[in-house]
Amino acid sequence: MRTVYCDESGFTGNRLMDEDQPIFAFAGVCMAPDRAEAYERELAEKHKLKATEFKGGSLCKRQRGQAVVRQVIEELADHAQVAFANKKYALCCKMFEYLIEPAVSPVNSLLYNIKFHKFVANVLYAFMIAEKASAESVFGRFEDALRGRTDRQLIAIPGASAVTAIDLNDFVDNIITFLVCNRKKIAEEVILDEPQRAGGWMLELSTTSLRSILVAFGADMEPMEVYCDESKPIADQTLIFDVMVGRTDVRKVPFAGRMHQVTFNLDRKIEMVDSRAYPGVQLADIFASATTFALNNPGHELSNVWFEHSEKFVHVDSVVPQLEFADLTRPDVAVSAMVFHELLNRSILGQPYLADMREIIGIAQAGVAAEPERFPGSPADEDDFRYFYEDDDEEEEEEVG
């Protein structure tokens, strides 16, 4: 039976606009309990550390601690999994999930297959980093609306009371217009269903990250015992994981053109523990802390070690901006833009669009294909994994792979 230890770094709950902690990371380490205990003891002896608990965040800040982190990454990279998120971009994804998808949920698979969700999220993120002052207000209200979970807060956005008063040339205003026109569908999912969401953790990232980590470790359905450092959102939503106790059936679902496994096998319920008594959880904390440190300090020597080995443990479900999905010279992105404007126009006019979704997409694709000179770019590749940094001094070098 496998033993998996988990911990996180950069947790701010539902507050995804936190400027001081822009990256969230959730890490898992698969290691036998006796080996984890022995390994921690060996680390302490080698590096002459007297601490009774390894704290990844503290280790990353000190030279002696960085040597510990480097050794852990180099030696345990093959035994770890890390899912991380750019939290501001994750908020843009949440905007699509809660404020766009409810209006198209009966046909959402068609839109996911053309990467419509990536188009919306990345254009919103591009707006956020280009128009920081106004973005803080728009996205802050979005966070407040979801945390408040009332119809008044959800719809009370300046200018949203009258569609005719909104400048439709601005993408964010277009999103707001779409919300106003589809407010009933959105309110039913976001507000009426909310009392059944445990603890109101609509924007937190821990639960989905843990699920990704456990699928990665347990894809072969071997039983796992799992220990997580104490986490309020995970503790509030344990029912999501309890259904995996004793599961042996491999289930996969299609999503955005790929098959995703959704089952794994837990030997028993996930245990929430105090990391001081579990060396394996402390090792997971080192991986999580090293991830947030590296992504916040990409030029640091320790970060170079992380990048060198990251391909072994970074999970494909990590949430990072892919601004190629906001490039309208790309034919597939242009298709998404045309589809969005058709949905917006029909919403304003009160016309149905769900039954015609295949036709709408087909017309957009045919239109783009008929004018290749207008859309010379290559289709965006959703599997082209990129790390994104905001750097005022290096404007031409925004993406680092």
Automatic annotation (TrEMBL):
Domain of life of the native organism? Bacteria
Q: What is the lineage of its organism?
A: Bacteria, Pseudomonadati, Planctomycetota, Planctomycetia, Pirellulales
Q: What is this protein called?
A: DUF3800 domain-containing protein
Q: Return any one Pfam family short name.
A: DUF3800
The record's annotation in InterPro entries points to: DUF3800
